Amino acid sequence: xxxxxxxxxxxxxxLPLALAAAPGFAQQTGTNDVESRVPSYTLPDPLRLxxxxxxxxxxxxxxxxxxELLRLxxxxxxxxxxxxxxxxxxxxxxxxxRAIGGLATRRQIRVxxxxxxxxxxxxxxxxxxxxxxxxxxxxxxxxxxxxxxxxPDPGIRLTSxxxxxxxxxxxxxxTDAARGSSASAWPVERILDRGYALAxxxxxxxxxxxxxGLKDGVRAHFGxxxxxxxxxxxxxxxxxxxxxxxLDYLETDPDVDAHRAxxxxxxxxxxxxxxAGAQDERFAMVISNNSGEGGAALARRWFGETVDxxxxxxxxxxxxxxxxxAGREASLPVDQHLLLALIAPRPLYVASASEDLWADPRGExxxxxxxxxxxxLFGRDGLGVDDWPVPDRPxxxxxxxxxxxGPHALTAYDWEQYLAFADRHLHASPKDxxxx
Length: 436
Ligand code: GTR
Description:
This protein has ten helices and twelve strands. By secondary structure, it is α/β, with parallel strands linked by helices. The strands form two sheets. A ten-stranded mixed beta sheet has the order 1-2-3-7-4-8-9-10-12-11, sandwiched between helices. A two-stranded antiparallel ribbon has the order 5-6. A hairpin with an 8-residue loop joins strand 2 (104-112) and strand 3 (121-129). Helix 5 (235-250) crosses helix 6. The radius of gyration is 20 Å and the shape is globular. The chain starts with 57 loop residues before the first helix and ends in a 9-residue tail after the last helix. Bound molecules: beta-D-galactopyranuronic acid. Beta-D-galactopyranuronic acid binds next to helix 7. Beta-D-galactopyranuronic acid (GTR) is lined by residues 1-2, 4-5, 267-268, 292-293, 305, 310, 313.
């Protein structure tokens, strides 16, 4: 999708969990792609407060540990986001009941973040399968290249925001040639056929993904103004905030059951989906596809991308303070298993790809494993296995996981697992709040 740093190495081996704690080096520089060189590390205990008190049950988690962790992730990793703007308003731009050859109703909605037509805004593309009982469960995900890139449907508005450098984009502006350019990541017909609505938003509409993108995005409008302080929000937090504003709209759409909103994201947008889902408990399920460092992968595990690498290449993604932990991951007060734990007790799916070593597939599995104690606190199961599964064998209970054979991507295979997982946890029970 986007340019990735080159990474050497062979496909990861299915090693027993115990090897994660092989004795090793105290401090590393550079990156590592050799499992046997991963040093030992100790993860913060999800069920112990910073003052060392043990979390005794769901009430302690909700009232003490969860707020504490949210604050720590804000302060040290993603930065603090503002509340929902009081003036937030939605404008339905168009509804076509006969889109995609009559398969779906296409609705496009403009989210006016300060309530004015001239202020910051982004567009939601919503497909509703026709002939299905409403309100419908809905997948929501940010896309990388514009709403028009998810399907060749000529009725989708071309984004007028900065569109990066993808196919059909000329000098940052999307053209008709860009229609459907990301369709392989968005099997729209299949999703609709399975009885789900699909809502998507171009992340660049919320804030352009570039070093100076801040001046053209929501952070410029909702502040704070001037130079960023250590715990001010980064771009991931801004995109995540946009997802909550999209859900604000979905709550008002009578064709959608916002209690069954399934949040999905790939790669940097997987990191974003996790942070949005961690903060906003209205999301009924969260899916992280190959989210890697700053997403589902453990920061303390020296494998693949590091805090140093990610904050050197993409300093604007995080709160400025995150950079302080480059090469000092062990002193981070959180690690990413705690981000996953913040989704509990809601269904969570973490997916890796065997050739995606930069994202540390095994570290993603181990983070999911590390979140299990919180699911158990709520009487839910977690992954249901101890060993990292072989490729193409999906596993899981309330936490789903698979290691797809192949490269960093969001594929039809990934979607099939998400649809099955969603069916299992949410589809059969409209308006059922039990999973929340
Ligand atoms: C890479 C980055 C990863 C991942 C990826 C993507 O270059 O190092 O953390 O987010 O981009 O979003 O495609």
